[in-house]
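Project standup — Tuesday

K.O.: blocked on the structure for the chain from last sprint. Re-posting the sequence here as requested.
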Amino acid sequence: MNVVPDTSVVIDGRVSAKVDDGEYEGATIQVPEAVVAELESQANEGFDTGWDGLEELQRLADLADAGTIELEYVGERPDAVERGHAAEGEIDALIRDLAAELAATFLTSDVVQAEVAKAKGLDVAFVSAEVRGETEIDRLQVQNYFDDETMSVHLRAGAAPMAKRGALGDMHYVEVADEPLSDETMDEYATEVVNAAKESRDGFLELSRNGMDIVQFRDYRIAVARPPFSDGIEITAVRPIAQTDIDDYEHADELRERLLEQQRGVLISGAPGAGKSTFAQAVARFIADNDYSVKTMEKPRDLQVGPEITQYTELDGEMANTADALLMVRPDYTIYDEVRKTDDFEVFADMRLAGVGMIGVVHATRAIDALQRLVGRVELGMIPQVVDTVVYIEAGQIAKVYDVRTEVKVPSGLTAEDLARPVIQITDFETGRPEYEIYTFNRQVVTVPLTDDEGSEDSGVDRIAKQEIEREIRSIARGHVSVELKGQNTAVVYVDDDDISAVIGKGGGRITDVEDRLGIDIDVRTHDENPNYRTGGSGGSSGSGGGSGAEEKGQLVTPEITSRHVIVPVDGHTGETVEVRAGGEYLFTATVGRGGEVQVSRGSAIAEELEQAIDRKQTITVHTA
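H.V.: unblocked you, prediction finished:
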């Protein structure tokens, strides 16, 4: 009897197991060189599967030395092109062809490989995962760590099993067993999960890459990580712990009416584990029960919805392709879980603007943050057409609902009639009180809170206006700039004596241009006229003045010039006000952004000065202001 095994059974150790059982005793095991090459490649890359397969080859060699079997290596090693296309089945095809040529029994534990081989007329011996009791496919060993309050189980070689347990909003990360798991046990669990996904009608592989498999088995999403992607075998299994109806939530009547009166653009936001997906499932079931056609877009597909709702994932690796297909299907509503990257927001917006009702699940720590994630990704004026409702979930309950709409008006806190512009108004759904406005102010998109921060003397509008005045004047003045607001549309700017003429300009033309752009009357004075200047108040000290030696030395930086900005990297001062100097001379003051950098728009006066300093190879330093 001649037997040709493929890579899957060699890795599983099932060839030697069949010899030990007596089934293949005395047989000639003909191992393809293509199998050896694939195992060698995996072992060289650090994958356990490669080492497991090489150990099986050694066991077969020992059996051959004992006279139990005959062992031969047959065929030719695949070339680089064939190895590069292993994922498309090139290596599998070589092994099948060799089995046909040798008229041998083809041994595999790969379901797809077995079916293809049968279709080609080969004598196939298919071996599935070892059966552990009669219900092996019905229940995975990983499931034994779950109880009614377990949301996720976290298993790792060398560590005790952990789980997140509790009610929504009150989860705790706890040990669920005392003894650490061995590498052998973890490998057994991982193999069982992947095989169940391949063999069970209730499971499928969402993702399979070198080092990572993501499986959906019934309502469990299971991620299996292996070296070298991870530093040890790790399994993370997640499942929903609650199913809710929309009636279980506050504002249920208003939300039901809102969702049914027309197709909406809704963002369901919240922190991880807050219950966003649970609420999205409730919404999906509700609108499906009210004569709407509902589909989902998910990667992985783990929303728990009824059979009447088809769940789609990426088509050819792109959600944009999935969206194109869905536009042909024309659902009334699509649930998009989860919207994270720029491409996701663009797909969400395209489908919404095509007339499809869209409900997206978004990570956010505040309700307003979900909407701000659209800024810069979607044209500002289109945002209310893309998203008109934001639902913020906290501890499994609706904590906030926003209504989003556009009005052409003067932004709150500003009075000049010529400042009227499109304003996105974000209103509390329950009280009807406006809480935020988003609009373009001096060529920048700003989000302005309409309720004052506790303990803050300046309103949101005041802070924005002050920042913009400072930015405009600093683009002109070389020394320190201080701004004091006197009212909703008046301000006093304090600058160095040497900067007075430059800021005012010939005949007052330059400061008039700034006033026209901002819609604010500005009185320009010297620092000597600022009563707080010398007492350490809001006026501060001169931008090019003294300070400690450490402050004078500053942080040496290398600016980057892009097509639109000059970017100054700043290490360790996110959110702080800093001064940028060239060759020790003050250039400007700015606030370090979240990305740890200061961006200056090219074409501005300060950008030109900075670029000239770079061209002159002057030392650029950053100092805390």
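K.O.: great, moving the ticket to review. The chain has five domains: 2-126, 141-238, 246-449, 460-535, 549-624. The first helix runs from residue 7 to 12.
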